[in-house]
Amino acid sequence: MSRSQLYEMTRSLIAHGKAKTMELADRVVSIPASAYTDPEQFEIEKAKIFKRMPLMLAPSCELSKPGDFKAMTVVGVPVLLTRQKDGSVAAFLNMCTHRGNPVAQGSGNASRFVCGYHGWMFKNDGDLLGVASPGDFGAINKAEHCLTKFPVLERAGLIWVILDPHSTLDIKDFLCGYDDLLEHFGFANWTLFDSRQLEGPNWKTAYDGYLDFYHLPVLHANTFGSDFFNRANYFAWGPHQRLSSPSVNAQKTGSTETVDLSKMREEDWPIDALLQGVWTIFPHISIASFYGGGGRGAMISQLFPGNTVGESVTTQFYVMEHAPDTDAVRQGARDQFDFLKIVVRDEDYTTGKRQHEALQSGLMDHVLFGRNEGGGQVFHQWVDRLTQASDDDLPLIFAKQKIAEAAE
Ligand code: FES
Ligand SMILES: [Fe+2]
Description:
- This protein is of the alpha+beta class.
- The protein has 2 domains: 2-53 and 186-407, Naphthalene 1,2-dioxygenase Alpha Subunit, Chain A, domain 1; 55-168, Rieske Iron-sulfur Protein.
- It has helices spanning 2-19, 34-37, 39-50, 134-137, 171-175, 178-182, 203-210, 216-219, 271-274, 327-359, 374-388, 393-407, and strands spanning 29-32, 55-59, 68-74, 77-83, 89-93, 107-109, 112-114, 121-123, 128-130, 149-150, 152-155, 158-161, 191-200, 233-237, 240-244, 249-251, 258-260, 278-281, 285-292, 295-305, 312-320, 366-369.
- The strands form 6 sheets. It has a 7-stranded antiparallel sheet with strand order 13-21-20-19-18-15-14.
- Strand 16 and strand 17 form a beta hairpin.
- Helix 3 (39-50) crosses helix 11.
- Fe (ii) ion binds next to loops.
C-alpha cells in the first residue's frame, strides 16, 4: 500500500516535471507577523504543541544496543531515553523520585542509574532498585517511586515520545500512516555517523525554510547553485508533509549520476528516486537524503524552540545506510555533513535571524505564503488548529484524520 503511494507520487512528479508545472495551493495566504514574534504565542506553542504532541526524539541508531541511553532537555522537560534488555525503547522523566535531581546525564550505556545527589538507584526500565541508607530513610513503597514513564513508539527506525505521561493520544494515529512511507528508507538498519547542534531563529521561521524550495536558487546560490529548482509538490499525511521537485530526473542509486525516470520501466525506478525530496514530520523534523562520496546518507534535522521566541536549537543527525569502512568514504561523509552545516547555519539560519529581527520591529502586519508555498500554509494551519485544540479534542482530531486518510 505505502509502496504504491510512492509510485503514485513519483508519477505525478514526472508528469508535472514534463509539463513544467507544479501543484498550486488555492490562494495566497497571510499569516500575522506576530505569530513569529509574540512571546505569549511562543509559550502557548511550547505548551500545546511541544508538550502535547509526539516528538521524534532520536533515530533508533542513536540507541542501537541494549543499555544505550540518552538524556536530553526538551522545552525545559528533562527526558531520559533507554534501550532496554528486550530491545524496546523506554522514555522517562529524567528526575529522581526522591527530590527531582536528573538521574542521568549525556549519553552512554548503562543498565542502571545511580542518582548523583543521595544515591538512589534505578534500573533502565525505570524501576527503583534501591534507596540509599534505607533503614535511616524510612519505609516507602518502591513500586510507587519508579521513574515516570512517557508514552513512546519506535517506528521506521525513529523514536517518538509524548512529554505528557497522561496523554490519551495514540502516537500511531498521530502519524497518519506516514510512518509506513518512512519505513522505505530502512532507517532501522542505518547507522549514526555524527550529530551536531546549531542555534537558529524562531522555530517556525526555521521550520518554514525546511518546507520551502522556492528559496533554493536564491538563498543557496553560492552552495547549491543559482540554476537549482525552486518548485515543490507537497504530499500530506495529516500534518506531516513530503515535498519534492516535479521532475523527470532522479539520482541513480549509489551514484551522483542522474537518470530520466520517464525513460525507465517503473519497476526499475531506484528507491532513492521514490524517496527524493524532503520528508518533514510535524512539528519539528526534516529528513533529506544525500549521496556524496560517503555513500547513501540522510540528514535528520530535529528542531526545538529555544529559550526565547527568537531562538531555536537544531540537532542535525547524519545517518548512513552503511557505516563508512574506508578513510575515503569516511571523509566523503564528513565533507557532506560539513557542507550541510554551512548551508543551514550560514544561509538558512543567518537569514532567519535577520528576518526575525526585522519582524520584531512590529512594523509589518502579516507575511505571505504564495500558491507555490502550500507546505508552509498547511504547517501554519496545523499549528493554529493544534494550539487551539483541547486535550480531549486531540485524539479525536487524529482519529478523524485516520478515517479520512483511509477513505481516500
Ligand atoms: S535526589 Fe536523587 S537520591 Fe536524592
Ligand atoms: Fe534552505
